User: Which sequence fits this backbone?
């Protein structure tokens, strides 16, 4: 059973649909014991990262997440809240990934949010087993995590082609800045890998 | 490298696709879900579904269709047609749409753009702009499928739409739509340089070269097309391979 953590963060339908397409059983929950007993935990996230962190703290879910020993996957804002700090709302995160989340600094000609299909490289985890370098995944975000030792995939964006963390891993915690649930067959492959880690 | 997007557009009436060819292996060409899934498998980067139903029952039929698309399709999709309120947008978001597109309703009530964007984020709001040139060569906005000409100037409107919170602009030249003679690339390039949000080119594609030109010379971020895909003149995969051969970054 996969627990999708329910902390009122926008529409989770696309994550649920993606799991359905993989034939995975899931439950949307904020219940500590269900989350602890799940085989896999998904932390989705849409919207404002600072507010997302505040909502997790209100319900003590930040502490629950921190103590999980099963594979956990944060998606987009769900990944950002697991970082040390985010500039969106100037908030300290759960601190599992040792990196900071900052806004893109657009140069003339750059568009923020970074939205659309971009390629991932430097793939360094079982999460990307069978995924070719330069595969395309779908992004929608204005804030991005700095590169760090926890980086397990990178993407370049903008006029300067600066690199940021496309995915992060620390022990049993994984995070993707992109949306695997919207990334076509590649995204489904990555989600399937997560279910088999 | 961020890829240029290729977006097939499906017109839907009473829950069925209006155009479409008899794809091999597709059991129901009229089913917008089957056709969308087929396009996704062929390499479409996003899908757009436009509801052109005139009847009063349109909303519930279309919302059910959006739910089925969300269940089935693993790429982002945009829905539009008759969205006139925050509630309309909310029900389509709940049904699983990634974005909505508004056109005439945004002209009638620009506040709608900021209402939807501030509640659900700019990434959710695609404002479609139909325009045509008038006698002095300048561009004016049209509404209701191009049938009503307004005195609103294109570039000023596009900038205002961006400031109100639109995440993308879908621009169609009514001078070119349906002509299959290519896009007005200079106008697209001028729009791209005056805006900080992506511009999707629509209406006028007759060939691969037309699409390549609007992505390069017109600096469009994406190209939306209907008939060249529906009538099977070129598959999405073949189009993207030809664009890649011209050094246009596309997702293959």
Assistant:
């Amino acid at each position: 059973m996969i627990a999708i953590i329910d902390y009122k963060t926008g529409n989770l339908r696309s994550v649920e649909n993606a799991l359905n397409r993989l034939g995975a059983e899931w439950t949307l929950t904020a219940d500590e014991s269900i989350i602890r007993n799940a085989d896999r935990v998904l932390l989705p996230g849409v919207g404002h990262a600072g507010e997302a962190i505040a909502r997790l703290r209100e319900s003590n879910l930040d502490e629950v997440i921190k103590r999980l020993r099963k594979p956990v996957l944060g998606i987009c804002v769900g990944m950002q809240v697991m970082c040390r700090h985010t500039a969106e709302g100037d908030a300290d995160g759960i601190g599992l990934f040792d990196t900071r989340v900052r806004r893109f600094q657009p140069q003339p000609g750059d568009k923020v949010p970074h939205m659309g299909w971009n390629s991932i490289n430097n793939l360094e985890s079982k999460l990307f087993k069978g995924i070719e370098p330069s595969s395309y995944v779908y992004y929608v975000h204005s804030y991005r995590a700095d590169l760090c030792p926890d980086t397990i995939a990178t993407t370049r964006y903008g006029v300067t082609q600066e690199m940021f963390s496309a995915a992060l891993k620390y022990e049993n915690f994984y995070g993707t800045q992109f949306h695997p649930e919207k990334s076509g067959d590649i995204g489904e492959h990555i989600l399937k890998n997560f279910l088999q880690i | 490298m961020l890829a240029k997007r290729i977006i097939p557009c499906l017109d839907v009436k009473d829950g069925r696709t209006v155009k479409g060819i008899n794809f091999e292996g597709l059991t129901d060409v009229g089913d917008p879900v089957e056709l969308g899934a087929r396009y996704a498998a062929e390499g479409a980067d996003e899908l757009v579904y436009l509801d052109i139903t005139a009847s009063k029952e349109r909303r519930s039929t279309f919302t059910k269709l959006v739910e089925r698309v969300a269940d089935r399709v693993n790429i982002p999709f945009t829905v539009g047609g008759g969205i006139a309120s925050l509630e309309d947008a909310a029900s389509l978001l709940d049904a699983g749409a990634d974005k909505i597109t508004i056109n005439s309703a945004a002209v009638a009530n620009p506040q709608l753009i900021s209402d939807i964007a501030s509640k659900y984020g700019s990434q959710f709001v695609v404002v479609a702009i139909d325009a045509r040139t008038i006698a002095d060569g300048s561009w004016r906005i049209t509404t209701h499928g191009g049938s009503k000409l307004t005195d609103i100037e294109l570039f000023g409107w596009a900038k205002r739409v961006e400031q109100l919170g639109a995440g993308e602009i879908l621009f169609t030249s009514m001078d070119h739509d349906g002509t299959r003679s290519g896009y007005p690339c200079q106008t697209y390039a001028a729009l791209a340089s005056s805006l900080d949000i992506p511009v999707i080119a629509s209406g006028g594609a007759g060939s691969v070269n037309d699409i390549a030109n609007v992505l390069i010379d017109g600096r469009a971020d994406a190209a939306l097309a209907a008939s060249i895909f529906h009538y099977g003149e070129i598959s999405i995969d073949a189009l993207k391979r030809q664009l890649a051969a011209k050094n246009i970054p596309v997702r293959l």
